[in-house]
Amino acid sequence: MKLRADQTGDRGLPMPLWLQGALETAQAAVISALVVIAPIIAVWATAGFQDGHFDTLARLAGQSWLLVHGVPLALTAAGSDTAAHGDAGLLTLVPLGLTLIPFLLAWRAGRRLARASYTDQLWQALLGSWLVYSAFGAATGFVCRTADVGINLGHAMLVPLVPYALGMVIGARREAGSWSRLISVDAVDWISRTSQHSRWAGSYLASAAKAGFVAVVSALALASALLAVDLFIHWNLVVAVYEALDAGAIGGAALTVAQLGYLPNLVVFALAWTSGAGFAMGVGSQVGPLGTAVGPLPSIPVLAAIPSGPLDYAVVALIVPVLAGVLAGWWFLREGENHFDEWLAIKIRARWFTASISTLVLGVLTGLAAGLLAMAAAWLARGSAGIGRLTEIGPDPLWTGVWVAAEVGAGVVIGYAAGPWLERERAAKEEDAELVH
């Protein structure tokens, strides 16, 4: 990119990398802000706000932009003495679906900056971009603070950098093709200097961690399908809430966009539900396959689909993480290398013993990796609505991780043990297909 060039593009002053990073970031910040502002303007245009003044709407848009980036908002009900009566709290329930917008914009910016930078110069572009985004967040937090919504300027300055910086680094890594080209550190050369036993152990642990990732992704996919079925079954209740709200076409569309923003959160809630850990919808409440006990809920259509009443067969949902573990065990058999099993086979001649122990260890390691990933997902998806009893929403990260780890571990043992039989069946079908042709 050049500051000035003629039609041939051969002359002109090259743009400094820090300035290019700053411009890319400013563009991403403006686009993400416009995405947040658009539904607010649509609702305002249909007289959907009691206070339609420009400054009020601008502050609401800024507060929404900060929440999308994970910045907690300190809510206080109208009145000067409400905080003393417990009517104040933090809004920390982040719409992860909308957080993908700045993440993807940062991913695009990271790729563009990686193309414009040499390996030892990328830090200049990243530093300029992160400084601008941090300043944008701090300015938004400073301007959008009100008596009812408090914003910590430190959080507004630093927290938005988390999804944005992560997106930029992943995008730059995608463009560079390897970490060695990105940061001048050749991991392959470093690994080659280690001992053979270290390389085998590292390869085994890396494969187990990848299998845990496969298990969590599979469990989330199955939980998404189960969530879709649940919404279909309770669609009449969801529509009834929409009709009772009578928000009009624009208001209903804005409400739907907000619910779609929380769709990834709901998928994680569904995963916690299928694991048996369940999730909370308010202080003292519990939603799970073994029982549901919740109090009054806000009039949000999607909440009408929460399973309630007799759940005689809901315990069958506990098989979802187990099936994900089976897929992970099969994946490990096909893609991974069980060096621990090979080492045991050399040390101990009893094959029945070494095969059993290595399979159990694989189940424990993969389950541990899956449990940690599920714990992180539950921590990201949960939060507080700020005021009232809805200060606890979402799954408990620790118990979700424990349940998922145990069930995935059991599934990995089954999948890895049954893998050879599944592979023989697959090979037999391929041979039959070749004979037919």
Automatic annotation (TrEMBL):
Regions crossing the membrane: 25-45, 90-110, 122-143, 149-172, 203-227, 233-255, 262-283, 313-333, 353-381, 401-419
Record key words, sorted: Membrane, Transmembrane, Transmembrane helix
InterPro entries membership: DUF6350
Source superkingdom: Bacteria
Keyword Cell cycle attached: no
Name this polypeptide is given: Integral membrane protein
Species, as recorded: Arthrobacter nitrophenolicus
